[in-house]
Design goal:
The protein has helices spanning 76-85, 107-116, 175-182, 194-199, 230-243, 261-272, and strands at residues 4-8, 12-17, 24-31, 38-42, 47-50, 56-58, 64-67, 70-72, 90-94, 118-124, 127-130, 134-137, 142-146, 151-158, 166-172, 188-190, 212-215, 218-219, 250-257, 278-283, 286-288. The chain is α+β, with helices and mostly antiparallel strands. It folds into two domains: 4-124, Ribosomal Protein S5, domain 2, CATH 3.30.230.20; 127-292, lpxc deacetylase, domain 2 (lpxc deacetylase, domain 1), CATH 3.30.1700. It is globular and about 55 Å long. 39% of the residues are buried.
């Protein structure tokens, strides 16, 4: 499971509007040295924000990271694209408060990263190897992990809405499966919730061009769905992004049931607080606790 760290070869940019703020932003992705992780820089605020669990400030309807009064919303799709392609080190310059939603999926960001080219670096990428089962539960969600020789994720959703209903997806996570099975899945929401979201300062940039909208009679988007089970695939996309906030791949089988950004990040905090359930492998022949890195 051990591999070399990766970054991108060349700078690349993309632009768009934030789905919640409705504000335009341009993102510039730049190569970063080994062991840098993913670091966001708000160019309009002259503030560096490293993408990790400690930086998470809000998990309602998206994952927001920040420090002090400076925040960046909806980072999960960009983080998922980087994690899905194995891009470990990346500088992300952004001139606004929210990562552009593009078409509601991670496909555009994946394309940008591939256009930039992926370069291996001369340092081994640490990974977390699960050694004992761990479960997190709250009133809405359940997230668990068990030892497994690979990166497997199972996601289950269960909505009362007949179109969504029960959907389940299980994947071995790798560059190909992420790019083909997860990255194209778009964010979704219900028409009946739109006014509530806008009243709370959310979904100001949302439209049929960047989200699946579900009404009483079904999907309102003229083009329909990209997958029959696009909803659970997008939830997995979000989870891949959220789980990358731990800073390294997890070797194990993660199962998520009706989970969202809050439960995802709470599970990771629970995992880090239970060092008896994992080891951190830092090279081919060495394992250490996470406190040692």
């Amino acid at each position: 499971m051990t591999r070399l760290q990766r970054t991108i070869r060349h700078e690349v940019t993309f632009s768009g509007v934030g789905v919640h703020t409705g504000r335009p932003a341009t993102v510039r992705l730049r190569p970063a040295p080994a062991d840098s992780g993913i670091a966001f820089y708000r160019t309009d605020k002259d503030m560096l924000i490293r993408a990790n669990l400690h930086a998470v400030t809000e998990t309602s309807f998206c994952t927001t990271i920040g420090t002090g009064q400076v925040h960046i919303r909806t980072v999960e799709h960009l983080l998922a694209a980087a994690a899905g392609l194995g891009v470990d080190n990346l500088f992300v310059d952004i001139d606004g408060p929210e990562v552009p939603i593009l078409d509601g999926s991670a496909l555009g960001i994946v394309s940008s990263l591939l256009d930039a080219g992926i370069a291996r670096q001369g340092r081994v990428m640490p990974h977390i190897r699960i050694t004992q089962p761990l479960i997190y539960e709250d009133s809405h969600a359940r997230v668990s992990v068990v030892p497994y020789e690979g990166r497997r994720m199972t996601y289950r959703i269960d909505f009362s809405n007949g179109l969504l209903g029960h959907q389940e997806l299980r994947l071995e996570l790798n560059e190909r499966s992420f790019t083909e099975e997860v990255a194209p899945a778009r964010t979704f929401g219900f028409l009946k919730d739109v006014e509530m979201l806008k009243a709370n300062g959310l979904a100001r940039g949302g439209s049929l061009a960047n989200a699946i909208v579900i009404g009483d009679e079904g999907v309102l988007n003229p083009t329909g769905l990209r997958y029959r089970d696009e909803f659970v695939r997008h939830k997995m996309l979000d989870a891949v992004g959220d789980f990358s906030l731990i800073g390294m791949p997890i070797i194990g089988h993660i199962t998520l049931e009706k989970s969202g950004h809050k439960a995802n990040t709470n599970f990771l905090k629970r995992l880090l607080a239970a060092p008896e359930t994992y080891t951190v492998v830092t090279d081919f022949n060495h394992a250490a606790t996470i406190a040692a890195i």
